[in-house]
Design brief:
- The chain is of the alpha/beta class.
- It has 4 helices and 6 strands, in the order E-E-E-E-E-H-H-H-H-E.
- 23% of the residues lie in helices and 31% in strands.
- 13% of the residues are buried.
- The C terminus is likely disordered.
């Protein structure tokens, strides 16, 4: 299998207290990592990096794990399709962003929001389970 060594990592955040600086973030300074078959096969200090088939210098960047904020707004009003289309086309858009749907949700009648919500969503919102974090609407806590 082909391996790729990434060097030039100013700070590598591993989220492993056993690595790097000993904090919960497990920050390794002057780091490197090896990727093999789309998986991280090794992380550590650049000076201890194993040989690899290819090497890429990241130029002193910080490398973080992927963060996922998976939550859903089960009930909201308004829409932002024009903003999305502009962003995908690479053009500037100044249409209000999230404030547009926040205002529309606040102005919407409760009955119209409840009518559009998926079945069982009030129960889901009440429980607020971490694995299925839900919000009652855009702009709500």
């Amino acid at each position: 299998m082909t391996t790729t060594l990434l060097t030039g990592i100013c700070e590598l955040v591993t989220i492993d207290p056993g690595l790097g600086d000993g904090t919960a973030l497990g920050v390794v300074s002057d780091a490197a990592l090896v990727v093999e078959a789309d998986h991280i096969a090794w992380v550590g200090a650049r000076s201890q990096a194993p040989a690899a088939d290819t090497v890429h210098d990241l130029g002193g960047r910080t490398v973080l794990p992927g963060f996922v904020d998976s939550h859903a707004h089960l009930v909201f009003a308004g829409e932002r399709s024009a903003e999305f289309a502009a962003r995908m086309a690479g053009t500037a858009y100044d249409g209000g962003g999230i404030a547009t749907t926040v205002a529309a949700t606040r102005d919407a009648a409760t009955t119209s929001c409840a009518r559009c919500s998926p079945p069982g969503s009030p129960r889901c919102v009440r429980r607020e389970r971490q694995r299925s974090r839900s919000r009652a609407g855009t702009g709500s806590p």
